[in-house]
Every structure is written in C-alpha cells, then in structure tokens.
TrEMBL record:
Residues annotated as domain Ppx/GppA phosphatase N-terminal: 24-298
Protein name per Swiss-Prot or TrEMBL: Exopolyphosphatase/guanosine-5'-triphosphate, 3'-diphosphate pyrophosphatase
Positions of the Ppx/GppA phosphatase C-terminal domain: 312-459
Keyword terms, alphabetized: Hydrolase
Length: 503
C-alpha cells in the first residue's frame, strides 16, 4: 500500500539495547517531518551470552513494545512497521518472544537480516548527508555494520556482533576494564574488518552510542550549534574519550557531562570499537549522522523501489519549507533575481559557484519564519535553519544560510558566536550575499510580481538594474532605495535602478 502526502508512518526498531519509535508525516515524495519519537532502554540483548533472550530481557522488551505500540497507534498511522535486529537474529527463543509480542500488542515484528539492517541504515544516512564515497559505520547494541559506499551506492557490507552490549559482555569482566581486556576487544575489531581497496578514508557514523560521544564532544568544545547531525569528531577526540571512559568505573562515567545515564555501562566499549575502526581505515574524522535505520525504513515506505533521493539538498530545502508553510516554487522569481545580481556583480565580490548556490538556497528559505510571527520572522527563519531538518550541508554552510535569511532585509550579519565553525572570510561573504539577497527580495516585493524581466549589468563602478514592467513599480523602487546604501557600502559600487516600461 503506497504512502501518500500527509499520511503518517510509524516505525518501531527493536534493538539489542533499546526499543525506539519514530512517527513521521509524509510531506511529499521527497520529504517527511518527524512528529514524535520515543525510546525505551529495554536491554533485550543483555545477558545473551548463551544465545537465548533472558526472561528479564523478554519482560523488558514486552513492556517496551506495549508502550511504543500504544504511542504509535494513537496517531492512526497509515503504515506501522516493526523490525528486530541482532538480538532477535541470534536468539534461539526469538520466536517465543515474537509470539508474545503479537499476542500482547497485535504487532508482528519482522526480523531483519544483517544486510537488510545495513541497507535500511544506509538509506537513512545517504538521504541526509553528503556521503558519496567512503565508509558508513552503524554501531548498535548487538551488531556493528561497516558499509563501503561508492558513488552514493552501497557496495559492500561487513556485519559482526560487536555492538556495545555484546562487546562489553564478551570482553570486559571488570569495571573499569583491565588493560588486557581492552587489548582483546581491540584485537577482535581488527580481526573483523579489512579496508576495501580504493575506498577513501572518509567515515560517517550512525547509532545511539555515536550520537552520545558527539554530545560529549559538543559540550567540551562549547560548540555554538545545537546540531549533532553533521558534527565531525576528530580521531584524537575519539581516542581521548576511549581512554578516559575506560579508565573509570560506571558510576564515575555516569557523572561525566554528556554521558547518557542509560549508556554509562556501555559507552566505553563503544568508544574503543569506534576508535579501532577509525585506526583500521585511516580515518582522521568521523561525521555524525542523526538519521539511520528508522528513517531509512520510512524512506522505503514513502519512495518504494527507489528509496534514494537524487538530490539531498533540494529535497531537504523543499521539506523544511513545506513543514513551515512555504512552497519553494513560489520563491523562484526571487531566486532568479538573486542569480542575476550575483552574476553581474561577480567581478566586484569575487565569490564562487558554491557561494552562488548558498545565495539561491537562502532565497528559497527566506520566508520560512513568517508563519510563526511576522514581526520576528527573520529571527525565526534563522532558528529554523539552525535547528530544522536541513540535510546535505556542512555546519559552516548551515551558519551561512541562517545568517542570510536572518539579515537579508537589513543590518550586517553577525557571525561572531560561530568563530569555531566559520572561515576567516565568511563575515564578508555573508555580508555580500545578504545584501544581494536583500535586493532580490526588494525586486520581488509583491507576489505575483509586476516585474517581468530583471537585467543586471556592471558598468564600471556602477551596477545598473533594468526592471521591465508594464505596471507601476513604486513599491519595488521604494524597497530598493531603502537597501541601496547597504549594498553600495559593502560592494563599493553605485546602484542605478531603471524602470523599463513594457511587458
């Protein structure tokens, strides 16, 4: 049964460590918005050394499934998907658990193979990041999947039972672990993976433990953005965390700022595994993905046989706009005007094609704060860019986009809170692009716009704007006059505006 726009999808992920729920509303064939999430630390795979799920694990799992099912069904979803992973793959008594879940909740859990789990996680990551060639690490409670990506396609999957729970229970018998136990875990990881010939040492990662490590790093850096998605963890930071977390017992680990209380007994094992994988691959950094298995299953439900988005950025822009009451196609006249201005003024500003694309993307998003509060629309637009589901951009690009939508109409972009993210020339870059976007928005002050054609040409030290319109354009000329001084001060160029009558 196909999923249509406005349909709701619920995904329940029954993992070895936790049971998670994602509830999403389809916005289009290329976008969805998350409307609810929940997590229950069921530890279904705890104590599974002999293979069977323990009675305590089964009881925790049943309670978690009852909670998640009740939450999911409260949204009357068009599709409810429930999947199981490593703990259920390897448990001889998994069928008993699945039957008890069905009797108690009515939900049938589909146990994914290692490849199916990896493929769904790959879809979630590839549809939300810039990953093109390299590796994807998906670390759960039970298993670890290392995927090789080439040309955005999944080429190879290596799956081993070295998730956080199983690594700790198999190799660590003291708290904190003894040096020989840590060496044994590192050797197990090294025996499990071989780098793929020709694959670049680019590494992305997904999973709760990876996000928890990113949260610790963000706190320590005093990082100015609240986003974990897209955050880069340097190899030295991961190694430092692996050493620090494994040097202290669980209760001391729990007191470290950023450590999740329900991960304090596992996080050191996860950090060691990640550190060793980075060493094997020669990766200098790991880029965090906030999306994975559950989002990948949602994409499969929405897009069917073609779950991979052809263009992550454009789909993400349209999705963020739709989620905030804006149709990006209505912004295309402004986008066109911004492109004309940028191209004509290129000899003055000297910016490149990547900057041009940021300007056009900002033109598409500039109205997203309107539905929250007209009078503070620019600040709300900035917040939505910082905090919304905007994918396919680096954190630096997110900062610049947010600055453009915030300062398009007036003022000078203030990037001082983001010194840890931006490049030295970005303050000037943001000022130039914001001034161009402000002129484009002035030209398209009314919708539908009476201006049929925008022609911009550089004449020595002056930029001449010829605006063709059959109707009077006093409103547009007034807005341009208000923004002329800022443009001239930043570009050191006179602005000449001419109304050319005609259709």
């Amino acid at each position: 049964m196909p999923v249509h726009p406005h349909d709701i999808i619920a995904v329940i992920d029954v993992g070895s460590n936790s049971v998670r729920l994602l509830v999403a509303r389809a916005l289009s064939h290329t976008a969805f918005e998350v409307i609810d999430e929940a997590r229950y630390s069921a530890r279904l795979g705890a104590g599974q050394a002999g293979g069977n799920l323990t009675p305590e694990g089964i009881d925790r799992g049943l309670r978690a499934l009852a909670i998640m099912t009740q939450l999911a069904e409260s949204y009357a979803p068009a599709r409810l998907l429930a999947v199981g992973t490593e703990a259920l793959r390897r448990a001889p008594n998994a069928d008993e658990f699945l039957e008890r879940v069905r009797e108690r909740t009515g939900v049938r859990i589909r146990v994914l193979s290692g490849f199916e789990e990896a493929h769904a996680g790959y879809i979630g990551v590839i549809n939300s990041t810039t990953l093109t060639d390299g590796y994807l690490l998906d670390l759960g409670g039970g298993s670890l999947e290392l995927m090789t990506i080439a040309g955005r396609q999944l080429r190879e999957v290596q799956s081993v039972p070295l998730g956080a729970i199983y690594s700790r229970e198999t190799y660590f018998h003291s708290d904190p672990p003894a040096p020989r136990e840590i060496r044994a875990l590192r050797k197990a990881v090294r025996r499990s993976f071989v780098p793929v010939a020709g694959a670049p040492p680019v590494l992305f990662g997904t999973g709760g433990a990876i996000r928890n490590l990113a949260r610790i790093v963000r706190i320590r850096r005093r990082y100015p953005l609240g986003r974990l998605h897209g955050l880069e963890l340097a190899r030295k930071e991961v190694r430092r965390l692996a050493r620090e977390l494994s040097a202290v017992p669980t209760e001391a680990r729990r007191r470290i700022p950023g450590v999740g209380s329900n991960r304090a007994d596992l996080l050191h094992a996860a950090a060691i595994v990640i550190d060793e994988v980075m060493d094997i691959l020669g990766a200098d950094a790991l880029t965090v993905s906030g999306q994975g298995l559950r989002e990948g299953l949602a994409w499969q439900a929405i897009r069917g046989e073609a779950p991979i988005l052809p263009d992550v950025r454009s789909a993400s822009l349209a999705g963020l706009a739709l989620a905030n009451g804006v149709d990006v196609t209505s912004a295309e006249p402004t986008v066109s005007a911004a492109a004309s201005l940028f191209d004509a003024a290129r000899p003055l500003h000297g910016l490149g094609d990547a900057d041009r694309q940021l300007l056009l993307d900002a033109a598409r998003l500039a109205g997203i704060g309107m539905h929250i509060d007209y009078y503070n629309r620019d600040r709300h637009a900035e917040y939505l860019v910082h905090s919304g589901d905007l994918h396919g951009y680096s954190h630096r690009e997110v900062v610049l986009l947010a600055a453009l939508v915030r300062w398009a109409d007036s003022g000078t972009p203030d990037l001082s809170p983001y010194r840890a993210i931006i490049q030295p020339d970005d303050t000037r870059r943001a000022a130039v692009l914001a001034s161009l976007l402000g002129l484009a928005r002035a030209i398209r002050r009314r919708s539908p716009s009476p201006i049929h054609d925008v022609h911009a040409v550089l004449e020595g030290t002056a930029l001449r704007l010829q605006l063709r319109a059959a109707a009077p354009i006093d409103a547009e000329l007034y807005e341009l006059e208000n923004r002329r001084r800022r443009f001239e001060a930043i570009l050191r160029c006179r602005l000449l505006v001419e109304h050319v009558p005609g259709s």
